[in-house]
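ingest -> validate -> predict -> emit
validate: passed (alphabet ok, no gaps, 386 aa)
predict: started
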Amino acid sequence: MERIARKHWKHLYEEIISTEICCGCSACIVACPHKVLELRDFDPVQTDGRSPFDNCIHGEEGCSLCAMACLRLGPALQTIESSVFGRRRRESEPEGPYRCKTLARATDERVSARGQDGGAVTALLKFGFDEKELDGAVVAAPSEDVPWLDEPKLIRSSEELLRTAGSRYTYCATPLGLKQAVAAKCKDVALVGVSCESTAVRELAAQGIKRWVRSLRLVIGLMCCETFDYGAFMVSKVERDMGLSLNDITKVNVKGRVIVTMKDGRDVEIPLKEARPYANEWCHHCPDFAAEHADLSCGGLGMEGWTMILVRSERGESYLERAIAAGVLELREADEEPRALKVMDRLAKKQRQRIKASEPHAEARWPTEQLLAAARSEGSSGKGRG
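emit:
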């Protein structure tokens, strides 16, 4: 913790951004009290002209919040896991700690039709709004101007929620929406984000940067292998090369292949082997498939019309129980879908192997026994990264 606290933008730029392992989660931008950081093409940039792009006058004067917020510079995983789960993750838990698991879908047909994989996540948020448990939700919402482009947005009602439902599989720096929540003086907020984003908000809390996360009541994590570059995949591949107008697409899903549903009812399939070259590069450094630091982790896992929910925290369990009691979810036993469980286990194990001991701060970012041993060996040989 002390090592991280002494670092600032200069170190963040040199060790994370310039080495291309920054995931664009936007936590550093949210944390910056001087408003001199912004996201451009999902890379944080320093905009204060008094300093060169790779340094920051505020950092030189002692501000270290951007570096403290960075989950790739070295997250406080022990603090995060202990505070959320009451214990550390075990090596034998490829999906991370969880209390129980279930399959769920929305009972409201309007929600299940608009949502992804049965609309369970949408139903959970709608329950929060309808029962006044939430006064805001930070989500990736479709742009009003650019088809199939997501933008971080604070939504305030069930009606607004239904207009943003579904997944688009291109990256969106959702935590930026926390600034909107603070500006709107929301008191009870949910955040829905992919793995890196659910960890990012925990990192802010663990590092004591609590202004932006003080109102968070629920973190819903989306299981995620990778996200696609909007320009390369949706514009160049889907629209230009395949001749599919983005304005005519009604849904995109990933079920062992990318399925693009058109207004005329056609399903156009893209093999994952063809789609993967369009994935964002930073995703290749992410070891977390199952959104391990969320209260509730959700994923379709190849199922049609159902979502797997991993209940991780006491807060998540309590919220889910209230939603079930309100009748907004239909449930099934997770063991009824053994194939989905195998997919989850396989992807979680495979993704954990993405992070290599040679990468910057690997042992701090995801301290498995293997990485810690490699770090100790490297340190004893005098080849530490400093």
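The first strand starts at residue 37 and ends at 40.
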